[in-house]
Amino acid sequence: MSASGEVRARIQQMRDKAQELQAAAERTNDPEERKRLREKARRLQSQSDQESMMRGGDIYPAE
Fold this sequence. Notes:
Blueprint: H1 3-27, H2 31-56
């Protein structure tokens, strides 16, 4: 697999994990656990979006 293919796969894995965490948050009855899972999902989604944009040349990483 090429380097760009590996990056795409990692980004997709992060997005998949974020969706899994969001689904787990919806299933839990514990409000604190729900909040924790949603926040973790949000961070993963944000990170995957940022990596995707950097890969596409839309943004440059912070220095």
